[in-house]
Design a protein that fits this description.
The chain is of the alpha+beta class. The protein has 13 helices and 17 strands.
């Protein structure tokens, strides 16, 4: 029994913690939003029973953003909050990676700022389509109808229709280009404390993360990476690792190593290493421990923390004006008018983005393209990098999106997907789950992303 199964069954069978929760938030994330009779725009499906399925296309990494975005959308829709679910569709760059819908990428602590107008308009649009559908059914004017608590109501006759009763007719209507938005004084959901929608499925172990992915025929992989940034792999002996029961293949990851600067404004560095592929994570881990590797640690292997602090101090010296090395160097050009200048230096160690859920990615490269399963802050970078590195057509790359146990910016980078896809390809096009162990994270993640 896995840890998650233990949590799940303990919760359900133990009698002490039995929670009701939405099944959609728990089940394995499924495919792209399918255009059907229940779809109203890009962010919502309304089922015949009235259930509102909000399509969450950003990245939930524990900050509660999925609930916040559902609140914004549902406010303008005038939905009953208890009937709102959160769904995770696959990445769909054509549909979402644009100014209209705000993109999949999540970072900079600015998701709410960027999506505020987008989601309000989307919710208001779906509401207006439901209003127009009701008006047609009642043979009245849309201005004679309004939405309230999951229903459309006729002002004159007080007739009511549930969202679910109207969705098929509404889905056939064209989207209105201009829709009115609510007066903030009338908000019922925005700004109100709401329990995060995913919490019940989190505490029962039902919510699936990238680390929970299971694909038929899947193998597991770990990588022994150079312990020093910019170090080189000189040689390795796989013989002892291959003797570990379950270990299938051992090979170098040098072909994909080095500084990658092709991802726009997000350069990253993949360390040289040796991949161990096995039929279980434990076998891969023991194979990693059994490897005999000779590294060329280079100049960085001879430097101490004090050496790096001195280097940083040299590079961070202020220039001739108070703005220093950041911003406009000529912002203050005449220091004669400056009465007083204050300077301060702050020194702090490297900070590790140590996520609760270790970095992981499952990939399957085949003759038909590539499928990837992971929690990521930037699916579009993964698509562009897999296309660049492996020449896989972008329309043949499928990314299954999952929430993650922490991101902090670390999951914005595509390196884990590049590593996993490379291992899948080199293993004979097998589906492979590549996992950074906690030890790997602490040894190799410092300086992993940036050239300096």
């Amino acid at each position: 029994m896995t840890r998650k199964d233990f949590i799940k069954f303990s919760a359900l069978l133990g009698g002490g913690l039995i929670l009701t929760f939405h099944a959609t938030a728990m089940k394995e994330m499924t495919g792209n939003i399918v255009e059907d009779d229940n779809t109203l725009g890009d962010f919502v499906k309304i089922m015949p029973d009235g259930e509102v399925c909000f399509q969450f296309v950003k990245h939930e990494m524990g900050q509660g953003i999925s609930t916040a975005m559902a609140q914004i959308f549902s406010e303008e829709l005038c939905a009953d909050w208890e009937k709102v679910k959160i769904e995770f569709p696959r990445a769909d760059l054509q549909r979402y990676q644009n100014d209209k819908n705000g993109g999949h990428d999540t970072g900079g602590s600015c998701t709410i700022i960027y999506q505020w107008d987008v989601l309000r308009k989307a919710g208001a649009t779906a509401k207006q389509m439901l209003i127009e559908a009701a008006a047609k059914q009642w043979n009245t004017s849309p201005t004679n109808c309004y939405a309230e608590n999951h229903r459309i109501i006729d002002k004159t006759t007080s007739k009511k229709l549930d969202f679910g009763e109207l969705v098929k007719r509404a889905a056939q209507l064209p989207e209105p280009s201009i829709v009115p938005l609510k007066d903030p004084n009338n908000f019922q959901l925005i700004g109100k404390p709401k329990t995060a929608k995913l919490i019940p499925s989190m505490v029962t172990g039902e919510l699936k993360y990238g680390l929970d992915v299971k694909i038929p025929g899947m193998h597991y992989a770990v990588i022994a990476r150079c312990p020093v940034f910019k170090g080189k792999l000189m040689s390795f002996d796989p013989s002892q690792a291959l003797k570990v029961q379950g270990v299938k293949k051992v090979f170098s990851t040098q072909p994909i190593s080095g500084l990658q600067t092709h991802a726009p404004y997000m350069p990253y560095d993949i360390r040289e290493g040796v991949a161990v592929v096995a039929d279980s994570f434990w076998a891969a881990r023991k194979g990693q421990e059994a490897l005999r590797i000779e590294w060329d640690e280079g100049i960085n292997g001879k430097l101490s923390s004090e050496d790096f602090e001195k280097l940083v101090e040299q590079r961070a010296r202020h220039k001739t004006d108070p703005t220093g090395y950041m911003g406009d160097e000529n912002a203050v050009s005449d220091l004669a008018h400056v009465r007083k200048t204050l300077r301060a230096s702050y020194v702090f160690p490297h900070q590790l983005h140590s996520c609760m859920e270790p970095i992981n990615c499952t990939a399957h490269v085949s003759n038909n393209g590539c499928e990837v399963w992971l929690g990521t802050q930037a699916p579009h970078l993964i698509v562009s990098e897999l296309n660049r590195v492996f020449k896989i057509p972008e329309d043949k790359i499928t990314i299954h999106l999952y929430p993650s146990g922490g991101g902090f910016g670390r999951r914005y980078y595509p390196d884990m997907a590049v590593e996993a896809a490379f291992i899948s390809k080199e293993s004979g096009n097998l589906p492979v789950k590549m996992i950074w162990t906690r030890e790997d994270d602490h040894r190799a993640n410092l300086g992993h992303l940036f050239q300096h």
